[in-house]
């Protein structure tokens, strides 16, 4: 049954309070839970963190909104804690990295297929192939540093293959800018997609910037530095596609609608009944928060909230393997580059980006070194060495 965001009032914010025990629950199992449960956890944590970061920026620019922003931000903080603490200590930082890239690949691929704006669909496909290559590089590092097969995390939903090589992803800032949607004409799904993917990429950038320095292996430290650099570029491109003429309150309303939209998708598709109950609880919380912001929007802007958010939200993002689509995009678009806001063939790439890449790669490229002669096989390279037949099988 479709959700009517204006009719369902959810839980009032004065009843949205969690205890420490509520926030720190038993984490999921790395191997026994479905990989898409972890995908949802990582995605929803990113969406909550984006809501918090937006709220802070908004408060700095809008004195009259500081109290309601603080009230809802406190609830977002508790929700984000609950979600992020679902990841257990059995995940190593590198395994969590693999999980982050699976989120980027599968969610972006799902979004790219349903995005109604052809230009923005291209933006998502372009970023998708870069995250796909990051997965391959980190899988090589996981295999060689920890002797682990990344498929233990991926559970065969996502391929481990080179994408657009990371060495070619470094671009001049002017080539990471994108055209934005028109807030008056863009479909609601377009706005939900933009907020969702920006949230996911921003969280990934933040994670890599924090976890990278904790590795002792020099190559691992360099690889995280390199890919964190690309993730900042991704945040730059995705945040550009949102119309900057939206008012602060309009953007706040869209943030809350997007949280409702994504929690609703999690409720519809979660396989773990214990985690599903959390998604249901937070969906009710976000509905209550949405109506607070709706009231503020209509009061201060004298506009009907339904002029921004439709009563019936779009169909949720599909949390399922997008392997066939990713392979098709890889086959057709791996040689795409950018020139300003346009997507061009490799032969037409911006000279500014070529010069930038030469400079930043002058002392070597960690993503190339870590994956030198690497080819994923079940069990990893240790398994290949122990079982020579695996090599002859791959060669044939």
Brief sketch in words of this structure:
It is built from 15 helices and 2 strands.
Describe this structure in words.
Strands 1-2 form a two-stranded antiparallel sheet. The longest helix has 29 residues, at 118-146. Strand 1 and strand 2 form a beta hairpin. It is globular, with a radius of gyration of 21 Å. The protein has helices spanning 20-23, 35-61, 66-84, 93-114, 118-146, 151-154, 188-211, 218-240, 248-269, 273-301, 323-333, 351-360, 366-370, 381-386, 389-395; strands at residues 336-339, 342-345. 44% of the residues are buried. It is 61% helix and 2% strand. With 396 residues, it is an all-alpha fold. The chain has one domain.
Summarize the helices and strands and which ones pair or pack.
Elements: H1 20-23, H2 35-61, H3 66-84, H4 93-114, H5 118-146, H6 151-154, H7 188-211, H8 218-240, H9 248-269, H10 273-301, H11 323-333, E1 336-339, E2 342-345, H12 351-360, H13 366-370, H14 381-386, H15 389-395
Antiparallel strand pairs: 1-2
Helix pairs in contact: 2-3, 2-4, 2-7, 2-9, 4-5, 4-7, 5-8, 5-11, 7-8, 7-9, 9-10
Average pLDDT value? 95
Helix content: 55-70%
- How many distinct domains? 1
Q: Using DSSP, what is the number of strands?
A: 2
Strand order of the largest sheet: 1-2
Distance between the termini: 50 Å
Largest sheet: 2 strands, antiparallel
Uncertain regions spanning at least 5 consecutive residues: 388-396
Number of H/I helices: 15
Query: Shape, please?
Result: globular
Classification by helices and strands: mainly alpha
Beta-strand content: under 5%
Radius of gyration: 21 Å
Order of helices and strands: HHHHHHHHHHHEEHHHH
């Amino acid at each position: 049954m479709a959700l009517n965001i204006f009719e369902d009032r959810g839980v009032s914010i004065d009843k949205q309070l969690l205890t420490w025990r509520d926030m720190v629950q038993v984490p999921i199992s790395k191997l026994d839970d479905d990989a898409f449960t972890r995908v949802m956890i990582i995605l929803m944590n990113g969406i909550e963190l984006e809501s918090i970061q937006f709220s802070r920026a908004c408060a700095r620019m809008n004195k009259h909104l500081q109290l309601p922003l603080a009230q809802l931000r406190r609830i977002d903080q508790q929700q984000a804690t609950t979600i992020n603490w679902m990841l257990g200590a059995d995940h190593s930082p590198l395994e969590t990295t693999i999980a982050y890239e699976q989120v980027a690949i599968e969610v972006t691929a799902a979004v790219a297929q349903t995005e109604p704006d052809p230009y923005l669909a291209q933006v998502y496909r372009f970023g998708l192939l870069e995250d796909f290559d990051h997965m391959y590089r980190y899988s090589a590092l996981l295999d060689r540093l920890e002797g682990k097969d990344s498929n233990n995390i991926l559970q065969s939903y996502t391929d481990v293959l080179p994408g657009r090589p990371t060495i070619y992803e470094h671009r001049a800032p002017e080539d990471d800018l994108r055209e934005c949607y028109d807030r008056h004409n863009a479909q609601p799904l377009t706005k939900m997609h933009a907020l969702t993917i920006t949230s996911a990429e921003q969280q990934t950038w933040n994670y890599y910037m924090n976890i990278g320095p904790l590795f002792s292996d020099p190559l691992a430290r360099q690889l995280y530095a390199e890919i964190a650099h690309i993730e900042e570029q991704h945040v730059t491109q995705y945040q550009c596609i949102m119309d900057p003429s939206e008012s602060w309150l309009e953007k706040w309303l869209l943030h809350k609608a997007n949280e409702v939209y994504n929690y609703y998708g999690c409720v519809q598709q979660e396989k773990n009944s214990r985690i599903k109950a959390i998604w249901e609880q937070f969906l009710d919380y976000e509905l209550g928060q949405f109506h607070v912001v709706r009231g503020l929007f209509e009061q201060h802007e004298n506009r009907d909230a339904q002029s921004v958010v439709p009563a019936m939200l779009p169909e949720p993002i599909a949390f399922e393997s997008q392997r066939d689509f990713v392979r098709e995009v890889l086959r057709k678009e791996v040689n795409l580059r950018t020139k300003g806001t346009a997507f061009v063939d490799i032969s037409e790439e911006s000279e500014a980006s070529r010069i930038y890449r030469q400079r930043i790669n002058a002392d070597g490229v960690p993503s190339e070194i870590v994956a030198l002669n690497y080819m994923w096989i079940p069990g990893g390279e240790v398994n290949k060495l122990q079982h020579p037949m695996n090599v002859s099988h791959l060669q044939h």
